[in-house]
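Sequence only, no structure available. Ideas?
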Amino acid sequence: MFEISVETHFYASHELALPDGSKEPSHYHNWSVTADVSSENLNNMGIVMNFHKLRELLENITSKFNKKALNSIKYFQKTNPSAENVAKFIFEKLEPELPDNVKLECVSVVEEPFCTAKFRR
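Reply:
I predicted one. C-alpha coordinates follow.
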Protein backbone atom coordinates (compact mmCIF):
# COMPACT_ATOMS: atom_id res chain seq x y z
CA MET A 1 0.00 0.00 0.00
CA PHE A 2 1.29 3.44 -0.96
CA GLU A 3 0.08 6.62 0.73
CA ILE A 4 0.62 10.34 0.17
CA SER A 5 -0.57 13.43 2.03
CA VAL A 6 -1.04 17.09 1.20
CA GLU A 7 -1.81 19.99 3.48
CA THR A 8 -3.47 23.35 3.01
CA HIS A 9 -4.66 26.18 5.24
CA PHE A 10 -7.53 28.61 5.57
CA TYR A 11 -8.56 31.32 8.01
CA ALA A 12 -12.18 31.21 9.18
CA SER A 13 -14.42 31.74 12.16
CA HIS A 14 -16.98 29.47 13.72
CA GLU A 15 -19.50 29.58 16.52
CA LEU A 16 -20.43 26.25 18.03
CA ALA A 17 -23.91 25.54 19.36
CA LEU A 18 -23.63 24.38 22.96
CA PRO A 19 -25.71 21.58 24.53
CA ASP A 20 -27.97 24.10 26.30
CA GLY A 21 -28.89 25.71 22.96
CA SER A 22 -26.71 28.78 23.42
CA LYS A 23 -23.78 29.57 21.16
CA GLU A 24 -20.18 30.14 22.03
CA PRO A 25 -18.72 33.48 20.91
CA SER A 26 -17.64 33.59 17.28
CA HIS A 27 -13.88 33.19 17.01
CA TYR A 28 -11.27 32.68 14.28
CA HIS A 29 -8.74 29.94 13.69
CA ASN A 30 -5.92 29.42 11.22
CA TRP A 31 -7.19 26.01 10.15
CA SER A 32 -4.87 23.37 8.70
CA VAL A 33 -6.27 20.51 6.61
CA THR A 34 -4.43 17.34 5.60
CA ALA A 35 -5.75 14.78 3.13
CA ASP A 36 -4.22 11.29 3.14
CA VAL A 37 -4.81 9.14 0.06
CA SER A 38 -3.61 5.65 -0.82
CA SER A 39 -3.39 3.14 -3.63
CA GLU A 40 -2.43 -0.51 -3.82
CA ASN A 41 -0.51 0.22 -7.02
CA LEU A 42 1.36 3.14 -8.48
CA ASN A 43 0.18 4.67 -11.75
CA ASN A 44 2.22 4.62 -14.99
CA MET A 45 4.34 7.53 -13.65
CA GLY A 46 5.23 5.54 -10.52
CA ILE A 47 3.10 7.69 -8.19
CA VAL A 48 -0.16 7.36 -6.23
CA MET A 49 -1.30 10.63 -7.83
CA ASN A 50 0.17 14.03 -8.52
CA PHE A 51 0.72 15.99 -5.28
CA HIS A 52 -0.19 19.25 -7.00
CA LYS A 53 -3.47 17.83 -8.34
CA LEU A 54 -4.41 16.49 -4.90
CA ARG A 55 -3.63 19.86 -3.28
CA GLU A 56 -5.64 21.64 -6.00
CA LEU A 57 -8.66 19.41 -5.32
CA LEU A 58 -8.36 20.03 -1.58
CA GLU A 59 -7.94 23.79 -2.03
CA ASN A 60 -10.97 23.96 -4.34
CA ILE A 61 -13.00 22.81 -1.32
CA THR A 62 -11.29 24.77 1.46
CA SER A 63 -10.99 28.04 -0.48
CA LYS A 64 -14.75 28.48 0.00
CA PHE A 65 -14.07 28.72 3.77
CA ASN A 66 -11.23 31.25 3.66
CA LYS A 67 -12.03 34.51 5.48
CA LYS A 68 -15.60 33.35 6.09
CA ALA A 69 -17.79 32.48 9.03
CA LEU A 70 -18.32 28.73 8.74
CA ASN A 71 -21.79 29.21 10.22
CA SER A 72 -22.72 31.17 7.07
CA ILE A 73 -22.13 28.13 4.83
CA LYS A 74 -25.35 26.25 4.11
CA TYR A 75 -24.09 22.86 5.37
CA PHE A 76 -23.02 24.37 8.71
CA GLN A 77 -26.32 26.16 9.23
CA LYS A 78 -27.76 22.72 10.05
CA THR A 79 -24.58 21.00 11.27
CA ASN A 80 -22.45 22.34 14.12
CA PRO A 81 -19.21 23.65 12.53
CA SER A 82 -16.92 21.66 14.82
CA ALA A 83 -13.51 20.56 13.61
CA GLU A 84 -14.92 17.04 13.40
CA ASN A 85 -17.75 18.13 11.11
CA VAL A 86 -15.42 20.28 9.01
CA ALA A 87 -13.23 17.18 8.48
CA LYS A 88 -16.29 15.12 7.48
CA PHE A 89 -17.56 17.82 5.08
CA ILE A 90 -14.18 18.07 3.34
CA PHE A 91 -13.86 14.26 3.16
CA GLU A 92 -17.29 13.91 1.54
CA LYS A 93 -16.51 16.63 -1.03
CA LEU A 94 -12.99 15.37 -1.83
CA GLU A 95 -13.64 11.62 -2.09
CA PRO A 96 -15.66 11.66 -5.35
CA GLU A 97 -13.05 13.89 -7.04
CA LEU A 98 -10.23 11.35 -6.73
CA PRO A 99 -9.08 8.97 -9.48
CA ASP A 100 -10.73 5.53 -9.39
CA ASN A 101 -7.66 3.70 -8.08
CA VAL A 102 -7.02 6.23 -5.27
CA LYS A 103 -8.71 5.86 -1.87
CA LEU A 104 -9.21 8.77 0.53
CA GLU A 105 -7.97 7.41 3.84
CA CYS A 106 -8.47 10.36 6.14
CA VAL A 107 -8.99 14.10 6.37
CA SER A 108 -7.42 15.78 9.40
CA VAL A 109 -8.37 19.26 10.54
CA VAL A 110 -6.32 21.25 13.03
CA GLU A 111 -8.13 24.29 14.38
CA GLU A 112 -5.25 25.22 16.68
CA PRO A 113 -1.98 23.56 17.67
CA PHE A 114 -2.47 20.25 19.45
CA CYS A 115 -6.22 20.14 18.59
CA THR A 116 -6.80 17.79 15.65
CA ALA A 117 -10.00 16.15 14.41
CA LYS A 118 -10.01 13.34 11.84
CA PHE A 119 -12.65 11.76 9.65
CA ARG A 120 -12.29 8.44 7.81
CA ARG A 121 -14.69 5.78 6.55
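The first strand starts at residue 2 and ends at 14.
Hope that gets you unstuck.
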